[in-house]
Amino acid sequence: MDLAEMVYGYTEELPSIEQFGLKVQMRRSVVSIPSNIAEGRGRGTRKDFCYFLRIALGSCNELETQLELSKRIYKIDLNNKDIKLLLTEVVKMLKTFIKKLNV
């Protein structure tokens, strides 16, 4: 959820031309992460939970790509942003969780 808040703030820095492009894609990707975790948890089986955790991980990969693209196109410095650090932490947590579920 913290990552989603950060990305929403970050996307406000993008030019208005991205209102229906990269901005929307980044927001959809970041919202997909906690949404899939919640959906998987609500399914009730380890197999389903693991499946949705993998989808959340895929959304992390999408977001990472979109962040890099926005950095390259709009020269937004991500080095001072905690987004990259938090995204890396979320990816680690998801991978660990998937491994522990071992499905």
Give the SSE map.
Elements lengths: L1 H10 L10 H22 L2 H29 L7 H20 L2
Helix pairs in contact: 1-2, 1-4, 2-3, 3-4
Textual characterization of the structure:
The chain is mainly alpha-helical and about 100 residues long. It has one domain: 23S rRNA-intervening sequence (de novo design (two linked rop proteins)). Helices cover about 80% and strands about 0% of the residues. It contains 4 helices and no strands. The chain is elongated. The two termini are about 25 Å apart.
List keywords for this structure.
about 100 residues; mainly alpha; de novo design (two linked rop proteins); 4 helices
Overall outline: elongated
**N-end to C-end Cα span:** 25 Å
Q: Estimate percent helicity.
A: over 70%
Which structural class should the secondary elements be placed in?
mainly alpha
Summarize the biggest pleated sheet. Answer: none
Mean of all residue-level pLDDT scores:
93
Output the CATH class name: Mainly Alpha
Strand content: under 5%
Rg: 14 Å
| CATH superfamily membership | 23S rRNA-intervening sequence
Order of helices and strands: HHHH
CATH second-level architecture: Up-down Bundle
User: pLDDT under 50 segments (min length 5)?
Assistant: none
Number of domains: 1
Counted by DSSP, the helix tally is 4
Please give the number of β-strands.
Answer: 0
CATH topology: de novo design (two linked rop proteins)
